[in-house]
Amino acid sequence: MSSWDAAVRSRAAQVAVLAVVMQDDRPAAVAVAERLLTLDPAPIVCTGGAAGHQISAGLHSLAPGIGEAAEQLDELVHAAVGLGH
After folding, report:
1. Dist. CA 27–CA 41, nearest whole Å
2. Is 33 exposed, middle or buried (0-12, 13-18, 19+ CB in 10 A)?
3. pLDDT value of residue 13
4. Which of 74, 73, 29, 76 lies closest to 51 in space, CA to CA?
5. Range(s) of the domain holding residue 27
6. How far is CA 23 from CA 3, 20, 39, 55, 63, in A?
7. What is the pLDDT of residue 57?
8. What does the alpha-carbon distance between residue 49 and residue 42 come to, in Å, rounded to a whole number?
């Protein structure tokens, strides 16, 4: 998980998107997301992929299709920028 921390911090990432392909990936995705949400400032954490829907409170589930997911992500980023995130 330290590699996630380093990636978010070194790039001042506002958003992290976790690909959750299989049901078995869900616990690890939750662990990574919870860790990222402790950073200051915390990025917006989104999940996508076949098993990425409604993983945990505080995470944004993206649509299964890449086009719709990209639109959702764009809206989240613009909303966050407007709020000074």
Report:
1. 23
2. buried
3. 81
4. 29
5. 2-82
6. 22, 8, 26, 10, 16
7. 87
8. 22
Whether the CB-CB separation of 13 and 7 falls below 8 Å is answered with: yes
Position of tokens 């998980």? 1
- Residue 35: Cβ within 10 Å count: 15
pLDDT for the residue numbered 6: 72
How many structural domains compose the chain?
1
Burial class (CB in 10 A: 0-12, 13-18, 19+), 16: buried
Q: What is the pLDDT of residue 1?
A: 62
The ranges of the chain with pLDDT < 50 are none
pTM: 0.82
From residue 4, alpha-carbon distances to 15, 25, 59 in Å are 12, 16, 16
